[in-house]
Design goal:
The protein has 55 residues and is α+β, with helices and mostly antiparallel strands. It has one helix and two strands; from the N terminus they run E-E-H. The relative contact order is 0.14.
Amino acid sequence: MCTDYHWGSYCHLSKLDDPAILDKDNYARNLSSIFQHLIIMSLQEILFIHLRQDI
């Protein structure tokens, strides 16, 4: 089962999945895009909190 997010798609590992969906390169790419998104979100939160403290 693949879930589409606004930053890309993520395929969940499941026995019901088509083996083509679980292509290792695609899985790694999806996983890295999720981590990149989480890092960006974290940085935005940190910047937002930092900017609010200056006000």
